[in-house]
Amino acid sequence: MSVGAVRAARHRADAAADLAALGAAARVSQGAEAACRVAAEIVAESGGRLAGCRLRGEIVEVSVALALEAPLEAGEFEIVSRARAGPAGSGRVI
To answer: Are 16 and 81 in contact (CB under 8 A)?
Structure first.
């Protein structure tokens, strides 16, 4: 496994987490279950697994896990990325 492959996987996991958090934030008004379901769908389409999803007020926090197989039967590694998103125009920086 090259450094480039790991870096590319990290970028994919980061992008999936960002998109999942944004998608979930758009559904906060429908409740945690609906928001996290949308996040899980987005992550699955990106080839990852939603490792965690939590609402804290209007802020959504997600964790995404992406499996990466090592060559020569060395096993499987898991890359984890996290992201947060909230309502647009809230005026808060988190």
So the answer is: yes
pLDDT of residue 1: 56
Which one-letter amino acid corresponds to residue 36?
Answer: C
CA neighbor of 39 nearest in space, from 17, 56, 59, 9: 17
Residue among 10, 36, 4, 12 nearest 23 (CA): 36
Q: Could you tell me which residues are beta bridge partners of residue 6?
A: none
- The pLDDT averaged over each successive group of 10 residues in the chain (94 residues) is 78 96 94 96 95 95 90 78 84 55
Rounded CA separation 31/28 (Å): 5
Gap between the Cα atoms of 73 and 28, Å rounded: 42
The structure tokens listed for 91 are 């005026």
pLDDT at 91: 58
